[in-house]
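Please review this one:
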Amino acid sequence: MSTLTTTPGSAAGDQLAAPAAAPANRPADRANPTRAVLMLEDGRSFVGEAYGAIGETFGEAVFCTGMTGYQETLSDPSFHGQIVIMTAPHIGNTGVNDADYESDRIQVAGFVVRDPARRPSSWRSRGSLDDELAAAGVVGISGIDTRALTRHLRERGAMRCAISSTLADDSAVNDPAAGDSAAGVDEGGQSAALAALLDRVRSSPEMVGADLAPVVSTPEPYVVPAASGTAQFKVAALDLGIKRATPAAMAALGCEVHVLPARTTGEELLALEPDGVFLSNGPGDPATADYAVEALRTVLRADVPVFGICFGHQLLARALGFETYKLTYGHRGVNQPVGDVATGRIAVTSQNHGFAVRAPLTGVTDTPFGRVVASHIGLNDEVVEGLECLDVPAFSVQFHPEAAPGPHDAANLFERFRDLMAAARQARAAVAGGES
């Protein structure tokens, strides 16, 4: 196992190279921009301008309500396979830099903005977002009504879509007055080229049933050392799509974090003799990750403290016997209010999930691992946002306590995990002392 000696929290310990000044796959003539179209699987289309790379891409259309943090959003592995729509109109103002990447590359399948900044201004910026997307081969679209698109997704639900900037011969796309259309092919409102694009959208993979955690997980284990240099606790972190800020947050509390591939078994986790096991965020359908659920059950039977966030929260729920389901349009943004059931306090949280846990909001539920309660509830739609086990040392939250981007209202949950590991260590010492 290699040891990461760069700044704690850098998932791969590498620096991203600055893109070329004028990527070949990006239109250079802004006076005559390449037209692009966004096609939803229900037949609605939006015509705008190419942004980033020229090409065609497919994914699940989702919207993010954050006004800031676009670079962290783009590089969050939880967005793998998704075309992200930013509801804030002005995106790209601060350009791009190396410090704000949450993984070693841009993860989104496509990017949608209304009014992109063409001249970024920031002392940290090393280039424009447009150039960065083009260099990474990420196809995007700009100049469309992103709020109308968001309203449509809120009413109809998240769905598959495509962005194409390759339909150069299609008059419906190249007409500057085309705007957006709600007409489907069956209504005669689309050209043959757009109808063919719609067919490709409808034949693209769905998010339900998608096993994506192994795709974005680290291929090899690595270690993020404690920030102080002296480790007080050893954490085995299952990388299901972990962000750099997450191990950094634990390292700042004196934890040596062993980041492990998604398919690491329970026996392999326990072989590290960790003080605690952490389950990260990640993309895809939690119902496909039975390998991680079985590993987690092995850990729970060993009474090792467990903390799960986002995708990891959903996997803990499934390990306990609860089901997960797909939300209509998901929670994505840095302004999601969550209520703490025990204290009554409200935290504004950073969230990025399209699936949720089906569990009782009130009362105690008996599971194969003892009693469980819902610890946090989403205030917008009463989604279960946290679980607490009363008989084994395990808890989880659906949101991101490390933020990146977003508020730090829930950062204390890492301290709670540290305290849980300390209590478990004391309990083991007491048992060992009683047996001697």
In short: The longest helix spans residues 412-435.
